[in-house]
């Protein structure tokens, strides 16, 4: 491969997966790996707050946020995803637009909170993307991110790198994201681990944070942007 544009390749890949994603998104938010995210956020965020849902996919998570009493703007890199969201998820306090997490089309300090589930670990430059989230969220606003952990599956998508190829792949683990957030002085407010079936609570609840994260399918971070 002589040239490689991470954004265009990623956009094309998610366009191709839009129908597949649409078939599984409802179950993920209602019963699966994402079911506890909105309850966690709601413990720390007032109803009526403006939320940016980055990587909104087909919009089901945005719909759930809207149903929980929030004003939601969904953004996704994939035009196919946005078309699905606009056609199937309607609400007075909900809108969707195509956009890139690396260059968000919003002014500084605009949103009360941002949610980005399984987004930042799939970008070429996670530090730049996290800075964009920090830019558009208000001072004292919340950033909720979900970062896939080691048990999310074999990194088959990463293997071509060993052959010298450039590929879209997972760029970091939860503990690496945690260090990145600390670099930007984002305060860890709350979080939760999502574990695969068979991982028993009594086996991990007393472990240090990094060891807990090492067993996760995903770790959800709730961070707060400090005063500037």
From TrEMBL:
Superkingdom field: Bacteria
Assigned keywords, A-Z: Methyltransferase, Transferase
Entry EC number(s): 2.1.1.222, 2.1.1.64
Record Gene3D superfamilies: Vaccinia Virus protein VP39 (3.40.50.150)
Pfam families: Methyltransf_11
InterPro entries (UniProt xref): Methyltransf_11, SAM-dependent_MTases_sf
Signal peptide limits: none
GO molecular function: 2-polyprenyl-6-hydroxyphenol methylase activity; 3-demethylubiquinol 3-O-methyltransferase activity
Domain Methyltransferase type residues, every copy: 52-144
BP-aspect Gene Ontology terms: methylation
Keyword hit for Lyase: no
PANTHER family tied to this protein: TRANS-ACONITATE 2-METHYLTRANSFERASE, TRANS-ACONITATE 2-METHYLTRANSFERASE-RELATED
Protein name (database record): Class I SAM-dependent methyltransferase
């Amino acid at each position: 491969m002589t040239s490689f544009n991470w954004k265009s390749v990623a956009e094309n890949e998610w366009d191709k997966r839009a129908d597949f994603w649409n078939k599984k998104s409802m179950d993920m938010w209602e019963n699966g790996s994402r079911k506890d995210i909105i309850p966690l956020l709601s413990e720390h965020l007032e109803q009526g707050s403006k939320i940016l849902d980055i990587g909104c996919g087909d919009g089901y998570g945005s719909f759930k946020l809207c149903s929980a009493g929030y004003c939601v703007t969904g953004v996704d890199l994939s035009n196919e995803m946005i078309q699905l969201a606009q056609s199937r998820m309607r609400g007075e306090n909900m809108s969707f637009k195509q956009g890139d997490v690396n260059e968000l089309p919003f002014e500084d300090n605009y949103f009360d909170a941002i949610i980005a589930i399984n987004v930042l670990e799939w970008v070429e430059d996670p530090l730049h993307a996290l800075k964009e989230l920090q830019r558009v969220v208000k001072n004292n606003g919340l950033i909720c991110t979900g970062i896939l952990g080691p048990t999310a599956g074999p990194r088959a998508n990463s293997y071509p790198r060993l052959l010298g190829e450039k590929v879209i792949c997972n760029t970091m683990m939860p503990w690496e994201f945690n260090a990145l957030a600390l670099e930007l002085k984002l305060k860890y407010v709350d979080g939760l681990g999502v574990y695969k079936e068979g991982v028993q609570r009594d086996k991990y609840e007393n472990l240090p944070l990094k060891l807990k994260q090492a067993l996760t399918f995903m770790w959800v971070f709730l961070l707060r942007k400090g005063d500037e």
